[in-house]
Amino acid sequence: MRDILSFRGFVALFLLGIIVAGISSAVGQIPFGQPDSEVGQLYLENGLQDTGAPNLVTSVVAGYRALDTLGEVVVLFVAATGLSAVLATSKRRVERELEDASLVLKTGCRIFFPLILLFGAYLFIHGHLTPGGGFQGGAVIGSAFLLVYLGCSGRRVSADAAGAIESLSGFGFVFLGLLGLLVGGSYFLSNFLPKGDLYELISAGIFPLIYILIGLKVGSEFAGIVDSMIEESK
Amino acid sequence: MIFLSEYIYYIGAIGLIFIGLLIVLVKRNLIKVVIGINVLDTGVNLFLISSGYLKGGTAPIYSPGSDAAPSTMVDPVPQALVLTAIVIGASVLALALSLGIKLYDHYETLDLEEIRGQRW
Q1: Is the CB of A67 inside 8 Å of chain B's CB atoms?
Q2: Minimal CA separation from A6 to chain B, in Å
Q3: Which of A14, A118, A134, B109 has the fewest CB atoms within 10 Å, i.e. the most exposed one?
Q4: Residue A69's pLDDT is what?
């Protein structure tokens, strides 16, 4: 509150007021609740026949716009690499007394860790059928490792293993794309595997494979981020 | 009031963007500035999602036994954009916090006025 009541705060409020008024008058022209995006309508109408995946968000992420997804995964990789590069050159290495976690947290960690891993794996393996997918499942798996660091004292992820899983799954994604270029058709990441029966687990061609790779990559990246941050605060 | 109920998601999203920008401009503590960036991120995500909303629409997922027509489903494109944006937002947040750790190591303070001499 003290900050806002200063001169700087008033200037910021005034300028933001102008910006927000401008944005609002523009956004007010867009009718809410009636999207008329042609590309969205096209995906909704043809998605099931084109890709064989009932979850149309998946058919956009892993099918129609898979190249963008590869770009997003690269952004994620750059952020994780930057984080470990920033934290690697730390000179502060004071060993602090660590207090043991309580019995509740320890027991809960032991029981819930495999269940959370299982749920994360379910999310990305079933990503083409039900709500979920590689990014969500990977985030859930990352949260399981956060629980391990908070609860099970002494246990930790091997940074080498996390790095290896991450690089291999990233490589696998690009390899699938190149294979699609070679076998399937004229474009990168084309869906070259058979589409299979609708609503079956093994269907929709390469989508489950892409989502498993993305899930492993995001999960190991988040585990690595948690590992770097916890190492720093020890 | 009719205007409010028609555009309530847009109002919420623009409100979050406003609050986030205000925190970034006004606050001096680096941790609070990072929180402001995160609030801004949430506002942008909410705006994107609500731009694809269809009144009374269902999730864009076909399921056996239901006969949801494509015209009653919400737009899947903003949802696909936002689900990656959320994960990237989380990792960029971690990157910003790690830079904060390094700044604290060097200056022994998180007050931006002390770090840079003058805020603006």
Answers
A1: no
A2: 9
A3: A14
A4: 86
The stretch A7-12 carries a mean pLDDT of: 83
B53–A199 CB contact, under 8 Å: no
DSSP state of B7: T
Residue B109's identity, in one-letter code, is T
Task: Classify residue A137 by its DSSP letter.
Answer: H
B93 in a structural domain: yes
Residue B69 placed within a domain: no
Give the per-residue pLDDT at B40.
93
Rounded to a whole number of angstroms, the distance from the CA of A163 to the nearest CA of chain B is 16
CB nearest to B101's CB, from A9, A87, A133: A87
Q: pLDDT tens-digit profile of A63-102?
A: 888 888 888 888 888 888 888 888 877 655 566 666 777 8
Instruction: Please state whether B56 falls in left (phi above 0), alpha (psi between -120 and 50) or beta.
Output: left
Structural domain including B13 reads: 2-54+75-116
Question: What was the pLDDT predicted at A94?
Answer: 60
Nearest to B103 by CA among B4, B31, B21: B31
* Domain CATH for B13: 1.10.287.3510
Contact criterion met (CB < 8 Å) for B21 and A19 = yes
Closest CA to B42 of B85, B99, B105, B71: B85
What span, in angstroms and rounded, lies between the C-alpha atoms of B16 and A37?
25
Closest CA to B24 of B46, B41, B48, B44: B41
- Give the count of domains, chain B: 1
Q: Which of B40, B82, B87 to substitute to test the interface with A, most A CBs within 10 Å?
A: B87
